[in-house]
Amino acid sequence: MRTYTAVVERDTATGLFVGHVPGFPGAHSQGTTLDELHANLQEVVAMLLEDGEPPIEAEFVGTQTLRVA
Question: Which of 10, 44, 65, 67 is deepest in the core (most CB within 10 A)?
Fold first, then answer.
């Protein structure tokens, strides 16, 4: 079993949750709920892995909060 980290955002125009796996080409999806997005991302990653393990081009490190005057 492999584990990947997804970055999740909410599109303010549509209200949809949008996610992608950093550095994993094509590993992105959306959903109306976080659970739906999670299931959709799992399905997309599983399909992409059918073609073999891709080289991951980036690694999720974290987030930063910026304060700007």
Answer: 44
